[in-house]
Amino acid sequence: MMNFVQVVCVLIIICLNICCFSIESTSNLESIRESYLNTVNELNQELMAMKEAYEELDREKQVLSNELEKRSFEIDQSETKQTIGILLLFRR
User: Fold this and answer.
1) What does R_g of the chain's alpha carbons equal in angstroms?
2) In whole angstroms, how far apart are CA 33 and each of 43, 46, 48, 90?
3) Largest Cα–Cα distance of the chain, in whole Å?
4) Mean pLDDT across the stretch 60-64?
5) d(Cα 56, Cα 52) in Å, to the nearest integer?
6) What CA–CA distance (Å, rounded) separates 34 from 30?
7) Distance (Å, rounded) from C-alpha 16 to C-alpha 21?
8) Residues near 2 by Cβ (< 8 Å), separated by ≥ 6?
9) In whole angstroms, how far apart are CA 54 and each of 25, 58, 60, 64, 87?
10) 10 with 2: CB under 8 angstroms?
11) How far apart are CA 57 and CA 70, in angstroms?
């Protein structure tokens, strides 16, 4: 049979183990939290880089679209002038 001191010692050991487990568990949770936050931050940075690249491509696309529209207008004007010139030649 255990005496009072032995029982108290066992209870103290059990309490210490519970406290250590709790501290270790908290430490593990903090480690998991930090890892999660780091991953989220890395993914956010990649997402921002992709967004910036997309916006740059969108600007370039707009410039090219404007240039294409301008050239199409110039070609239309040139063809119109040629057609008018040919019509005037046939009228004479």
Assistant:
1) 39
2) 15, 20, 22, 84
3) 132
4) 94
5) 6
6) 6
7) 8
8) 10
9) 43, 6, 10, 15, 48
10) yes
11) 20
Sign of the Cα torsion 76, 81, 86, 91 reads: positive
Side chain identity at 38, as an amino acid letter?
N
> How many helices and strands in the chain, by DSSP H and E?
1, 0
pLDDT tens, position by position, 13-58: 777 777 666 666 667 777 777 888 888 888 888 888 888 999 999 9
Structure token pair of residue 72? 């199409």
Side chain identity at 43, as an amino acid letter?
Answer: L
